[in-house]
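Researcher: We're teaching a course module on how sequence relates to structure. For the next exercise, students receive a sequence and then see the predicted structure as tokens, so they can try to spot secondary structure elements on their own. Here is the exercise chain.
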Amino acid sequence: MIVEPVYIENSMILNADSSEDYAKFSYTFGFGDDEIIYQYTRFSNRELRDEELIINGISVFKCDFLRGEYEFNNLKYIDAETANVERYLQSLEVEENRKARLPFLKWLIGNVALKNDSVLNRLINYVRGMMVITIGNGMPYRSRRMNDGFYEYLEDSENLNDLEEFFNEMGIECKLALKKLPDDHNELYFAHEKLIPFLSNASSGTLALLTLYRRLIFRVKEASLVYLDEFDAFYHYEMAQNVIQFLKKKYPRCQIIMTSHNTNLMTNRLMRPDCLFILSSSGTLTSLCNATQRELREGHNLEKMYISGEFEKYE
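Model: And here is the predicted structure for the students to work with:
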């Protein structure tokens, strides 16, 4: 088969120095004794090149959209052998679907009645609880409509008290009040003798905490994996430690990945050395326990070791 070259619009998924026209993604999940690998390549955020689902070493399905080659021989392995794959393939022929191809995994989940104990259901539930959060202080710049849902949540006095306790636990002692304005919209205030509008008077760190609360605690009841990029960009080092301790207590069964430039967080009081990683300039990740010949003990000052160059080889 002769495959014509495909010219795709620029996309942020590719490294600017890469000569490749597609990017590959691979995710490995472990559920009990089951290992699930879902991998795919994309030309852009919209255009899928191929995808494959592998469970316990068995390729359940494989789709090569570029060449028009499809393998659905092992759908019975996930009790999905009744799936009408012909209908899916027909949908790919529709003109408007050729660029924005629907992944077969997503189609399968929406068109097959899976058993409650299906490993695919466990995968779905886990993925639905995954979040990427970039912490910022953008609440004041959000449209009123976008904030209304959060303020309606705070109309319940228990929820407002929970937010207040969250700030106090982070080291920000304050009282909060929610008032309805004449135009029927709510506004959040610091409660003093005179009410002080919250969004226009809170510090960058406090606004960043509000963003964290709104996006994580308010929206996610049971998170599975949370990625917090530069989570402490607006925090004092003690507040950053408070956030880590709070998240560990709030989500004990959740995998949380946080990035930071704050070396004060390199301490055994907060995290084990095998949970602290150095991201090198070349893009590799190395845990502190694997970045030194020493046997790291609880009494070691990890920050001091880092500053003195103990892990320099892996930076």
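Model: If you want an answer key for the exercise: Residues 204-217 form the longest helix (14 residues). The chain is about 30% helix and 20% strand.
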